[in-house]
């Protein structure tokens, strides 16, 4: 349907109406200088108002056409219907404006009154031609947006695909160690990995905070099989934030980083807190003053940037490593 269907966003109609008003203003200048009798403000008011009304009629007719007519008729009739609706929006828009001003005593009405039928037909054809140009412009705009979206999605999928082997490599290493040490724990770890991947296999690049934290809990369960429950995860109440969307694996990566680089063989406490437009992950493991972003953290930073969700910050605070996902509303 998109080959003929003219999809225009509400803000586009604002721009179109403004352009229409300017077009009407310049047409009024033609009449203004064509005849000395028409050199009055009412000429400009009539022409500008007519252009705005035509824009409103076009908005109404195109909306009706897209939503109620085109979906119900054979595709071969779309061009004919589009022509009829474009022509009618121009002609009826002019006639509506003409009737509004007909009872007034402005001179331009008297000047065009004898030719109103011809003017209505001419404006109808002009509106159709403008509609064709507008159709091409809007189509190119949406095609460009679609291309940009596809490029963005490709980049995000590449980054996400980079993460899956990264996680699996670490998780399977843990299981391989357990196979010879404790087969029961190895079995539990495999079940948890299966649960994690079931939640992770999801085409969406953004997931709710609630879904992300479910994966975090499962991930910590996997690691605790290996580390004998020495990873203590504390998650602050997040009920008021549970539906906000964040990049998949974002908090999980920070927790994974805390375990990988912060675990010292004793109990490791990982605290996840929430503030307005902030997600904070703290751990009391090994401190690093000069942290270098490896695969996981660099990946997260890129995804936050590409999806325009926020940015990642790091600092040491009160003998704890602190990562903060600063969401866009707080940047």
Descriptive overview:
There is one protein chain. Helix content is 64%, strand content 12%. With 331 residues, it is α+β, with helices and mostly antiparallel strands. The strands form two sheets. Strands 2-4-5-7-6 form a five-stranded mixed β-sheet, covered by helices on one side. Helix 2 runs antiparallel to helix 3. The mean pLDDT is 79.
Secondary structure layout:
Layout: H1 10-34, H2 41-69, H3 78-102, H4 107-112, H5 116-181, H6 183-200, E1 206-208, H7 209-227, E2 231-235, E3 245-247, H8 250-262, E4 268-275, E5 278-283, H9 295-306, E6 310-317, E7 320-327
Parallel strand pairs: 2-4
Antiparallel strand pairs: 1-3, 4-5, 5-7, 6-7
Helix pairs in contact: 1-2, 2-3, 3-5, 5-6, 5-7, 5-9, 6-7, 7-8
Helical run tally: 9
Radius of gyration, in Å, reads: 32 Å
Low-pLDDT residue intervals, each spanning 5 or more residues:
none
Coarse morphology: elongated
What can be said about this structure in brief?
With 331 residues, this protein is α+β, with helices and mostly antiparallel strands.
Features:
331 residues; alpha+beta; 64% helix; 5-stranded mixed sheet; two-stranded antiparallel ribbon; 12% strand; elongated; single chain; 9 helices
């Amino acid at each position: 349907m998109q080959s003929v269907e003219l999809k225009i966003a509400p803000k586009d109609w604002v721009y179109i109406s403004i352009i229409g008003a300017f077009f009407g203003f310049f047409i009024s200048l033609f009449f203004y200088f064509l005849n000395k009798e028409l050199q009055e403000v009412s000429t400009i008011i009539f022409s500008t108002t007519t252009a705005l009304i035509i824009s409103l009629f076009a908005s109404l007719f195109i909306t009706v056409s897209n939503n109620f007519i085109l979906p119900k008729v054979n595709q071969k009739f779309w061009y004919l219907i589009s022509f009829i609706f474009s022509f009618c929006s121009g002609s009826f828009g002019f006639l509506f404006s003409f009737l509004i001003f007909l009872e007034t005593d402005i001179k331009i009405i008297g000047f065009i009154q004898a030719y109103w039928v011809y003017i209505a037909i001419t404006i109808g054809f002009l509106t159709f031609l403008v509609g064709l140009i507008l159709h091409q412009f809007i189509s190119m705009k949406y095609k460009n947006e679609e291309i940009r979206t596809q490029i963005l999605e490709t980049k995000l999928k590449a980054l996400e695909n980079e993460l899956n082997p990264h996680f699996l490599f670490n998780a399977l290493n843990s299981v391989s160690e357990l196979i010879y040490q404790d087969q029961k724990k190895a079995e539990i770890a495999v079940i948890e990995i299966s649960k994690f991947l079931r939640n992770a296999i999801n085409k969406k690049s953004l997931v709710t905070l609630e879904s992300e934290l479910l994966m975090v809990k499962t991930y910590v369960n996997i690691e605790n099989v290996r580390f004998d429950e020495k990873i203590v995860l504390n998650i602050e109440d997040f009920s008021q934030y549970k539906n906000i969307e964040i990049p998949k694996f974002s908090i999980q990566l920070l927790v994974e980083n805390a375990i990988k680089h912060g675990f010292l063989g004793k109990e490791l406490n990982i605290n996840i807190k929430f503030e307005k437009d902030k997600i904070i992950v703290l751990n009391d493991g090994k401190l690093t003053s000069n942290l270098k972003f490896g695969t996981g953290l660099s990946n997260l930073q890129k995804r936050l940037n590409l999806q325009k969700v926020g940015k990642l910050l790091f600092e040491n605070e009160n003998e704890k490593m602190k990562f903060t996902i600063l969401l866009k509303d707080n940047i």
